[in-house]
Amino acid sequence: MRKRLALLAVAALLALTGCAGAGAIGSGGRTLVIAIVANPQMNDAISLSGEFERANPGVNLKFVSLPENQARAKITASTATQGGEFDVVMISNYETPQWAANGWLENLQPYVDRTPGYDPGDFIPSIKESLSYNGSLYAVPFYGESSFLAYRKDLFEKAGLTMPEHPTWQQIADFAAKLDDKAAGISGICLRGKPGWGENLAPFDTVANTFGASWFDQNWNAQLTSPEFKQAANFYVDLVRNHGEVGASSAGFSECGTRYAQGQAAMWYDATVMAGTNEDPENSKVVGKSGYVAAPVVRTQSSGWLYTWSLAIPKVAKDKQAAWNFLNWMTGKEFVQLVGKTYGWNRVPPGCRLSTYDIPEYREAAKAYAQPTLDSIDAAKPENVHVTPVPYTGIQFVGIPEFQDLGTRVSQELSAAIAGQVSVDEALEQSQKYAQTVGESYRETK
C-alpha cells in the first residue's frame, strides 16, 4: 500500500513545478522553505513572518503558498518521495498519523518537551490526539475546526422563522426554500460543490454520515450505491441546485465565504473557522448579523467534522531545529497575541489552544461564535458519527492513503451531478466502481 502511494506521489511530483531545495543558503543566511495552504489565517502568518526573522537572525523564510488542492498534491508528492523541497509542511489530521507510521515525519515530541512555555497541554484534547501517533505529536496545530451552520438572524426574523440550536437537515432545506430570493441575489444556502476530497466531500460526507451512509461496510464492501448514500447524495445535490449559490459546482470554502460575507446567502454550512471572516469589519458586510448553530443532523446526535491545519517537519529536512523554532513561533501562545493586537481578535487562529478562549479581548470579539466552535469540536467524535460500524477512521474523510485519489474522483462525480452533467445515480455508480477497487485491496490483505 505504501509503495503504491509512493509511486503515485512520484508521478504527481514529475507533473509539478519544482522549487528551491529546503534549507537552501540565501543571501542573508539559511532559508527555510515552508509549504502552506493559501487560507486567510495562513496569509496573516505570512505577513507577520518578519517578526520571526527579526527574532532569529540569519534565518530567512520562503513560503510556497498554494490553493488547497494544489498544496495537498505538492506536499504529498514531496514528503512521500522524501524529495527534501520543504523544511516545514502544512498538513492535517488526515495525513499526520499515516505519514508518521510511514516514517515520513520528524517526531516533534522531543522538541515540544524541551521548549519552555510551549504548553502542549493547552491544545484542545481532540485536536492534539488527532495529530499524535503512538503517544507522540508529529504535527502541531495552527488552527482547529469542526463544522457548523451560520445563518442570517435578520433574514430569519424578517421571514418569521426561528432557527433551532440543533436543526435537522430537513428543517434547513425548508428554511432555504423560504429564504431563497433570486431577485435580490440571495441564495437560501451556500454549500461547497467544488471538486476535491477536502472541498465538496468535507460537507457532503457529514451529510452522508448522518443519513446513515458509509463508504465501506465492515468487510470493505463499497457502499456508495446503498439506499442511504443515494438518499444523502440526492438531498445534497437537490438542495444546492435548487436553493444554493450560482455556479455551485465550482464553489469551495473561499467562494462561499465571499458570498456569505457579501450578504448573498441566508445560510452557510461549513468549517467553524468561517466565523472569523464573517465577523471581520474589513471583509464582511454582515458583521453582527449571524447566528451559529450545530451541524444539522438526520439520524445521528451530531455530524460536524473534526479537522486541523497543522505544521510538520519532513524527516529529510536539513535544519530541523530551525524548522521547530518556526513551528514554535507560529503555533505558540505569543502568536495568538500578535495576531489579535495586529489585525484584530476575530482573526486569531481558533479551535486550537484553550487559553485563547480565556483572553478577554478574544471572548468579546468572538462572543457570537466562540462557544459554538468549542461545542462543535467537542461533539466531533469519529466513533459517534456513523449509524453502522465502519472499518476506517475519520468523519469527513476515510483515513486510508487511497482516499486522496478515491475521494478526489468521487468529488468530481458529485460536482458533475451538481452541474447537471450527470445524474446522481450515474455519479454514484461510477463512484462505486472506484470504491470497489479500493475495498478489494483491503479484503485481500485481511
From TrEMBL:
InterPro entries xrefs: Bact_solute-bd_prot1, SBP
Record keywords: Signal
Family annotation (Pfam families): SBP_bac_1 (PF01547)
Signal peptide: 1-22
Protein's name in the database: Sugar ABC transporter substrate-binding protein
Source organism: Amycolatopsis dongchuanensis
